[in-house]
Amino acid sequence: MSEKKLLEIRDSYFLSEEILESVEAAMSKNVDKMVSLFKVLSDPTRLRILKALEIQSLCVCVLVELTSCKPSALSYHLKLLKEAKLINSRRERNFQIYYLTEFGLWLLQSLKNDF
Length: 115
Description:
- The protein is α+β, with helices and mostly antiparallel strands.
- It has two domains: 1-29, no CATH class; 32-114, Arc Repressor Mutant, subunit A (Orthogonal Bundle).
- It contains seven helices and three strands; from the N terminus they run H-H-H-H-E-H-H-E-E-H.
- It has helices at residues 3-13, 17-28, 32-41, 44-55, 60-67, 71-83, 102-114; strands at residues 58-59, 87-92, 95-100.
- It has a three-stranded antiparallel beta sheet with strand order 1-3-2.
- A hairpin with a 2-residue loop joins strand 2 and strand 3.
- 11% of the residues are buried.
């Protein structure tokens, strides 16, 4: 920021140099991971999958039925959720079971408090 801009901010809002430096440091941090997470969460189908998994771990065959997605489309959604570390899966006999990770559960519970 130019010196003139800093003075205008200080005069208008009475911000100290320390606060301005902290704000600039916060704004210069890399937010790519957060942007990726918000992109994953921006899809209604993926949010519905998360909400379903909050109630019960489910096999992929049930998720196909519940979402009305083609298996290939569902696979894509699950891949993105897994890459975001919101869900994970395990094999049980012939079934692939999906479940929320601790982070996924924490995120959903946090969002519930505000939405």
